[in-house]
Amino acid sequence: MTPMTTLFASTLLSLGQSCGGSMPTIAETAAADGRFQTLVAAVDAAGLTETLNGSGQFTVFAPTDAAFAKLPRGTVETLLKPENKTALKNVLLYHVVPGNLMARDVLAKSGWTTANGQRIDISSCDAGAKADASKIVITDIKTSNGTIHVIDTVMLPAKMNIPETATKTGQFATLLAAAEAAGLVEALSAKGPLTVFAPTDEAFAKLPAGTVESLLKPENKDKLAAILTYHVVPGRVYSDDAIKAGTAKTLQGNPASFKSNRDGVHVNNARVVMADIDASNGVIHVIDSVMLPPASAAAASTAKNSSGS
Q1: pTM for this model (two decimals)
Q2: pLDDT for 230-279, tens place per residue?
Q3: Could you tell me the residue range of the domain that residue 117 belongs to?
Q4: Are both 130 and 181 inside the same structural domain?
């Protein structure tokens, strides 16, 4: 891969220098090569050419024309229509990581947050490196404002919002019913972004008998909303960022704490059983227990002790 990369980058550099005497930008480099015509057209249609010609430093995972040709018939033509400019821009920004990352930098982490807010996963094995499911076929094409890595498949960001993503998994019937009863579905479907620590149906089943049924009653709507918003943090917070931060203020108002040990990642006393599930408006972390905000936890403890006496 290295000799091919060097030859390719040198050819593009020569093209740029012969035209203007300086190293070309990301947009100019892609346009000068014959394999990115669809990408160049898409960047122009999305209004991103000026950005990729600017002074900011970017890392672009660039799909070839062959990569775009793998998409279902009519997909590219649909995305290029003016009315789909926002969707196209969202897809393209999912291929851009802020900062100038060479291949060694890319492979140093398991994932990178893209310019559209969602994260791409990075993996490497004997067969080569991948960004999400796309094979990185050429690396380290240097430009004046960043680096290009060529990929063989177009990467698609998550399109479903948080409630839609939760519905699709089939593990969150109780959580979704609770969000509906608390009047929070609209907020969880909004632009966000939000981070949700989502208890599974099994997690809700751990609560004392009758607790869920009681919380779902109209007269307990405020109490239910307080518990649910204790599971939501503003912003898109991935698991590694959460651990680094240690704590984060929830929408309910009280902070949640994060730690990592031999058992995995924990938020308060709940274990994260699946992390970093991207949604169009945030990220979901699946947890194995329902978290109770301090006031609710104290009330639950008192009630438990009273019933046991």
Answers
A1: 0.83
A2: 999 999 999 999 999 999 999 999 999 999 988 889 999 999 999 999 99
A3: 2-151
A4: no
Q: End of a domain among 101, 117, 151? A: 151
What is the C-alpha separation between 164 and 184, in angstroms, rounded?
13
* Residue in the block written with tokens 């291949």: 103
The DSSP 8-state label assigned to residue 276 in this structure reads E
Helix (H/G/I), strand (E/B), else coil: 232: strand
CB neighbour class for 156 (10 Å; exposed up to 12, middle 13-18, buried from 19): middle
Structural domains counted in the chain: 2
Average pLDDT, the chain: 89
Tokens 């991207």: give the residue.
Answer: 278
CA distances from 198 to 43, 237, 273 (A): 36, 14, 10
Report yes or no: 111 and 276 within 8 Å, Cβ to Cβ. Answer: yes
pLDDT score of 4 more than 70: no
Q: How far apart are CA 248 and CA 244, in angstroms?
A: 11
Length of the chain: 309
Q: Write the CA distances from 203 to 34, 150, 175, 198, 262, integer angstroms.
A: 54, 43, 10, 9, 21
Asked whether residue 157 is assigned to any structural domain, the reply reads: no
Cβ 294 vs Cβ 252: under 8 Å: no
